[in-house]
Amino acid sequence: MPELDDELMKRCQQGDTDAFNIIVRRHRTPLVNFITQFLGDIDSAEDLAQETFVRMFRATNRYKAGAAKFSTWMYHIASNLCKNELRNRGRRGRFFVDSITPTKYDGENSGDEDLIATAPAHVSFQPEAQLEQKEIHNAVQSAIAELPERYRLPLILRDLQGLSYEEISNVLDLPLGTTKSRINRARLMLKDRLRFFLESL
């Protein structure tokens, strides 16, 4: 709901700090996930997400509703911070982390313990299937991590964050054709890096 973000930013410009807190709650999780995917470091992602929101808050009065989508503005700030972080690290290798927290079922007072205990598990919940899914996830994350930055960033924005090509062009200050070309190239590189792994399954 981009119009809601614009409305919240207007309220921020009028001095309503609660409106910005709502913005943070709305966008914190996708922003942390984006930074985590790009840097492969959940601790740094938390810090950089916080810094992104700080910079957005400081620039509240410069925000113009309708000039660009709110998410484009946010990811533009975050991607610049990510690039600076990588330069400051000296491009040391980092591992990607699995930021998905599985939910747990405690079974308390369900009344169906015997039925659940004796029912055959769906194939996706069997240990072998779960292990295979985990291996695929790790392989994809590692392959993404190995992509050059110029290809990795637009790929994450498109295929993991769901931004349009136009939005990505605005975030990265690239011509639309270059954006599409880099995403296509990144997908081909990813497919090539994963070919041996997928053939071995």
Describe this structure in words.
This protein is mainly alpha-helical and 201 residues long. It folds into two domains: 2-89, RNA polymerase sigma factor, region 2, helix turn helix motif (Rna Polymerase Sigma Factor, Chain: A, Orthogonal Bundle), CATH 1.10.1740; 118-199, Arc Repressor Mutant, subunit A (Orthogonal Bundle), CATH 1.10.10. It contains nine helices and no strands. The chain has helices at residues 2-13, 17-39, 42-58, 70-89, 113-118, 127-146, 149-160, 165-172, 176-199. α2 packs across α4 and α8 crosses α9. The chain is elongated and about 60 Å long. It starts with a helix and ends with a helix. Mean pLDDT is 80; it is low at 91-125.
Question: Would you kindly provide a brief summary of this structure?
Answer:
By secondary structure, this protein is mainly alpha-helical. It is built from nine helices and no strands. The two termini are 41 Å apart.
